[in-house]
Specification:
With about 160 residues, this protein is α+β, with helices and mostly antiparallel strands. It has one helix and ten strands, in the order H-E-E-E-E-E-E-E-E-E-E. A hairpin with a 2-residue loop joins strand 5 and strand 6.
Length: about 160
């Protein structure tokens, strides 16, 4: 066999191996859980003063499709003037942490808001530990085995 043909075959083989290695890395990275959709309502009608404490919040966890899980809350308390609320997710294997961030507030009242958080890139049959954080602390934690029929309800009591 000609030496230049051997070199071409060797370079082509290395190129293909490199592409396959990169593709494998991309697939692993794409499988990390992430927030794909986020919704925050306006303030509910139940405005309370800070000294009164927080009322109960009901949290629903349901399957959206084969890779997505929806977390809905009914009465998550935020300062009345917190207009821009956004999620920040950190995921390491089956541990998912979602921090609800907003700008510092000067309000002396709280109001309940409805939240919808959709997490994607989950694997059916896998058990996940989910922690929702707010105000630099843990707001609510739960564990869920993700399946076609996931349908959970929790009441967070104050």
């Amino acid at each position: 066999m000609n030496k230049s043909i051997k070199n071409i075959i060797a370079v082509t083989a290395l190129f293909i191996i490199g592409l396959l290695a990169l593709e494998g890395c991309n697939k692993k990275e794409a499988r990390q859980p992430k927030v794909s959709d986020f919704f925050v309502s306006e303030c509910n009608d139940n405005v309370i003063l800070l000294r009164d404490g927080e009322p109960n919040d009901t949290i629903y966890v349901t399957t959206v499709d084969d890779t997505k899980l929806k977390i809905s809350t009914t009465n998550t308390q935020f300062p009345c003037d917190a207009y821009t609320i956004r999620p920040e997710i950190q995921a390491q294997e089956q541990n998912i942490s979602i921090e609800l961030l907003y700008e510092d507030s000067w309000a002396d009242c709280l109001c309940g808001r409805h939240l919808d958080i959709i997490i994607e890139n989950l694997k059916l049959g896998q058990t996940y530990s989910v922690c929702i954080k707010k105000d630099e602390g843990d707001y609510f934690q739960f564990e869920v085995t993700f399946g076609h029929d996931t349908n959970l309800m929790f009441i967070r009591e104050q």
